[in-house]
Amino acid sequence: MNSIPLSVYLVLALILFCIGLFGALTKRNAVIVLISIELMLNAVNINLVAFAKYGAKPGLTGQIFSLFTITVAAAEAAVGLAILMALYRNRKTVNVDEMDIMKR
Amino acid sequence: MQNAWLIPLLPLLSFILLLLFGKKLKEASAYAGIGATLLSLMLAAAVMLGQWGGESYKAEGVWLSIGKHAVTMGYEINPLNALMLVIVTLVSFLVHVYSKSYMRGDDRFHVFFAYLGLFTFAMLGLVLSPNLLQVYMFWELVGLGSFLLIGYYYFKPEAKAAAKKAFIMTRIGDVGLFIGIILLYWQAGSFEYDEIFKAIADGTISSDMITLIAILIFVGAVGKSGQLPLHTWLPDAMEGPTPVSALIHAATMVAAGVYLVAAMYPLFEASSAAMTTVAVVGGITAIFAASIGLMQKDIKRVLAYSTVSQLGYMMLALGSGGYTAGVFHLMTHAFFKALLFLAAGSVIHAVHTQNIEEMGGLWRKLKITAPLFLIGALSISGFPLFSGFFSKDEILMATYGDGRYGLFVLAVLAAFFTAFYMFRLFFMVFAGSPSQEHGKVGESDGPMILPMAVLGVLAVLAGYLNTPWFGTFLADYLSHGPVRFAAEGEHGPIWIPILATAVSLAGILLAYLMYGKKKLSRNWLSRSLPSLSTIVYRKYYVDEAYDATVVRGTTGFSCLWSYVDRYLVEGAVNGTVSLIQWLGKRGSYMYDGQVQRIGAVAVAGLVIILLFFAAAGGYFS
């Protein structure tokens, strides 16, 4: 059980985070962007759990914190999708490129 | 004597009064000025009488203390400055009276009297000062008064230029004076006259330093008294109203330089090099200015060059050890030169021109002015029994006794020139027939005649204060002062007064033959030596030389720096501005409202911060 070192978890989380970041910054479809954000959140969760087990002060705090994150992420996904629906109704598109009203 | 501090304050009071209410008082402004100076004059006369055999008096309080050093302010009465007080208040009072009539009808009548009050205050304050710092303050204030009065007709471009020139030229001298005062404070540890003199007497200051300080202080005197390298402002200052010329540029302010040298006399006496400098500058100025005076055509300019020349005489006397002679000539000169200026003002008032070639035959028309002018001219020429005769004799004796025979010859020559140009002026203005019609030429009225008459009497009688025949009252009087000067009991050879008389008579005679009788052609010099006469007429091209060197040099230098400022400094500033603007514009292109671009930029920033911390070893290290 202890054969897998902390660094492996961290590298996994790093890869996951980078994929999520890449997706969030490059994909044009808003749904994919939301999914990418979820990926980044989960990368964080892996970190939290990994440090809870192998960190300087092992304990349950990290795991509980990650549970909170998952809950909040679920709520966030629901709100995000709702906004997306509203946007789609208004503009007939979910393409992120076309949503540039912040400049105006 | 304890009330001496009132003397300068009364004119100041008149100045403030006229500043506040002058517009309402209008012509009545004159009475404020006249009243104030009359009171000052009476006080000054009382002070001087008290000084006759009395002790000198000093009162002062701490004005500023810095650490252990205290700077004091106060006033001091000694024989020398009591004499100056009387001269200044007397001439100022007479000029106030004269101006009341001379300036009548001028729009800024009250301003003129306000300025006169300010100037008189400054001059009296200068004379009363017990320490050099206070002297310096009033010295500058005097310069300001002179500036304002020269530029009184500020709408005339010449007057404006003359005022600026006077201010800047004297300022050059003031820098020397200022450095001298600082050095003296550094060496003697005090601004007070008596402590400085004590330090010099004790030998705490090295002799080289004394020479340096004395020469620097003399530079200040050179600027104020129009001595040779810095004399050019004084003739130009004649653009001011004529009473101002009489007060400032003949009797009082220009004498401030001589007064300063006299007041600091122990300092100068301690250094033979400084004494030589004073004597040589004075002697050369005397002959130089007198020769320019020979050729001038403007009545006031002749008198101005004559003033420069006479101030040179005073410096020559002081530099030759003739303390009494210098102060004596200062006094007699104040009277007869003020008289000459006021008389010239009266002439100008009558004929409305200053060009002496356009005058002539005024003897019969100006029945009172003309004899008074003659008295002044005889006095300045050193005609026997007039005051100038006695004081000039003293100077010649002092110069001869000092052993600088070259300067003695210059002084005798300058005396000849003086007699000649004064009588050239006199004959051209008053003798012969009018060369031009001036309309109705009327004698001036009472307020103008009265001051001239008083000065006329003084121009004759002042000389008897110090004569070899009746007694040397002035020398005895001055010897009570803090300045211990060598007794001038031993009188020079008897031939000196005879020579001086002969020279002055020769000058008068030559002028009479050339301009009075017209026996001699008046332009034989310009015909036989055209180049020399042109050089003299153009005042030795001093102004032109200054213009070509100092003025052009300064203009060129500042032009260079204005380019540096415009292109280098401003270029750097503008470059920075446009760089920032360019960066901002680039940055704003990146922001196109795309959420993902914003996110990418944020991540890039985060990455940069992280990289920085990785390189630096962490935020907390």
UniProtKB/TrEMBL annotation, chain A:
Gene Ontology molecular functions: NADH dehydrogenase (quinone) (non-electrogenic) activity
Matching Pfam families, A to Z? Oxidored_q2
Residue ranges crossing the lipid bilayer per the database entry: 6-25, 32-52, 64-88
Q: Reply yes or no: does the keyword Oxidoreductase apply.
A: yes
Q: What reaction(s) does this enzyme catalyze?
A: a quinone + NADH + 5 H(+)(in) = a quinol + NAD(+) + 4 H(+)(out)
- Where does it reside? Cell membrane; Membrane
Keyword hit for Transmembrane helix: yes
- According to its UniProt record, the EC number is 7.1.1.-
Q: How does it assemble?
A: NDH-1 is composed of 14 different subunits. Subunits NuoA, H, J, K, L, M, N constitute the membrane sector of the complex.
Instruction: Give the matching PANTHER family.
Output: NADH-UBIQUINONE OXIDOREDUCTASE CHAIN 4L (PTHR11434:SF16), NADH-UBIQUINONE OXIDOREDUCTASE SUBUNIT ND4L (PTHR11434)
Q: What does this protein do?
A: NDH-1 shuttles electrons from NADH, via FMN and iron-sulfur (Fe-S) centers, to quinones in the respiratory chain. The immediate electron acceptor for the enzyme in this species is believed to be a menaquinone. Couples the redox reaction to proton translocation (for every two electrons transferred, four hydrogen ions are translocated across the cytoplasmic membrane), and thus conserves the redox energy in a proton gradient.
Q: Belongs to which family?
A: Belongs to the complex I subunit 4L family.
Report what the protein is called.
NADH-quinone oxidoreductase subunit K
Q: Which organism is it from?
A: Fictibacillus terranigra
What gene name is given for the protein in this entry?
nuoK
